[in-house]
Write a structure and sequence with these properties.
The chain has a single domain, classed as Nucleoside Triphosphate Pyrophosphohydrolase (Alpha-Beta Complex), CATH 3.90.79. The protein is α/β, with parallel strands linked by helices. Strand 1 and strand 2 form a beta hairpin. Helix 4 runs antiparallel to helix 5 and helix 6 packs across helix 7. The strands form two sheets. Strands 1, 2, 3, 7, 8, 9 and 10 form a seven-stranded mixed sheet that branches. It has a three-stranded mixed sheet with strand order 4-6-5, with no helix packed on it. About 30% of the residues lie in helices and about 20% in strands. It contains nine helices and ten strands.
Length: about 250
C-alpha cells in the first residue's frame, strides 16, 4: 500500500495509491485493490535475501513465521518485486544502504531496464538487482495486515499486506498487463465510495482504506507501526465462524 502526504489544503492528510484489476481476470476482475501478487520461489533464494537492507531474516521471522516453507523475509522481497512490476516503483539502495537517486537518468534507466527484463522473464528479480549493484531497501516498508480467503471462495489464498512510504523522486505508472487504472485517492474518500457501491473492493482494500483514514499524518501512521506487528487479521477461522450471522455493515470502521 503506497502512502504519501496529501498536498497542502487537501480535504484529507493522506493519499493511497490504488489500481483496478482488469475485468477479464479470473479472480476479482474489475475490483479496486493495491499492487501485489504471489510469492515466487526466487523471492526466497538465499542470494536475494542477502541483498536486503533494513530488515534481516531473523527479524522478519519475529514479525511472522515463514509460510509453506518460505522464510518470512521472502514476503518483503515479493512486495518490492511486485511494486516494481505493477507500478514501476523500486525500493532499492546501494551497498551502504543509501537510497537510489531516481532523478538521475542512469538510475531511472536502470529501474526501467530491471522492470522490462523482469516482465520478459529474462532473469530472476535477485539477479537483475544484483546486476545493477543494488539492494532491496526494506526500510520504507511496514507490515500491515494478513488476510485469508473464506472457504467459500472459488480461489483460495493467504495474503500479507505492507505499508510503503512513497519513495522520493519516483511516481507510480500504469502498466496494463494486469491493471486498467492507477490513481491516488484519499483513504476516507475511497472508503466512502466503496460504501456507496462506486468502487468494488474485497475486504483487504476496504479495511485498509478505513484504517489509514483514521490518521492525521504519515508520521502518525508510521509511529503506530513501529512495533512491526500487523494491525488486524482477516483470518479464515474468524470469518467462517461469523460468516452467516455477523453484521459486517454495522461493524465496519466509521
Amino acid at each position: 500500500m503506497l502512502v504519501r502526504e496529501a498536498p497542502a489544503g487537501a480535504p484529507e492528510p493522506l493519499e493511497v495509491y490504488m489500481i483496478r484489476r482488469n475485468k477479464g481476470m479470473k479472480f476479482l476482475g474489475g475490483y479496486y485493490a493495491f499492487p501485489g501478487g504471489k510469492v515466487d520461489p526466487g523471492d526466497a533464494a538465499p542470494e536475494v535475501l542477502a541483498r536486503c537492507h533494513g530488515l534481516g531474516v531473523p527479524e522478519a521471522e519475529e514479525v511472522f513465521p515463514g509460510h509453506a516453507g518460505a522464510p518470512a523475509l521472502a514476503f518483503w522481497v515479493t512486495a518490492v518485486r511486485e511494486l516494481l512490476e505493477e507500478s514501476g516503483v523500486l525500493l532499492a539502495c546501494d551497498a551502504a544502504g543509501r537510497p537510489l537517486e531516481p532523478r538521475d537518468p542512469a538510475v531511472a534507466a536502470g529501474i526501467e531496464r530491471c522492470r522490462r527484463a523482469l516482465m520478459a522473464g529474462e532473469a530472476s528479480f535477485g539477479e537483475l538487482v544484483s546486476r545493477e549493484g543494488w539492494y532491496c531497501d526494506l526500510s520504507g516498508l511496514r507490515y500491515f495486515s494478513h488476510f485469508i480467503t473464506p472457504r467459500s471462495s472459488p480461489i483460495r489464498f493467504t495474503a500479507r499486506f505492507f505499508l510503503c512510504r512513497m519513495p522520493c523522486g519516483q511516481e507510480p505508472r500504469l502498466y496494463t498487463e494486469e491493471t486498467s487504472e492507477g490513481f491516488w485517492i484519499h483513504p476516507g474518500d475511497g472508503y466512502r465510495r466503496y460504501q456507496t457501491g462506486e468502487l468494488a473492493m474485497a475486504e483487504p482494500a476496504e479495511y485498509g482504506l478505513a484504517y489509514i483514514a483514521q490518521f492525521a499524518s504519515l508520521d502518525d501512521l508510521w509511529v503506530a507501526h513501529d512495533d512491526g506487528r500487523h494491525k488486524f487479521h482477516g483470518i479464515i477461522d474468524r470469518i467462517d465462524v461469523f460468516w452467516d450471522s455477523f453484521d459486517w455493515k454495522s461493524n465496519r470502521f466509521q
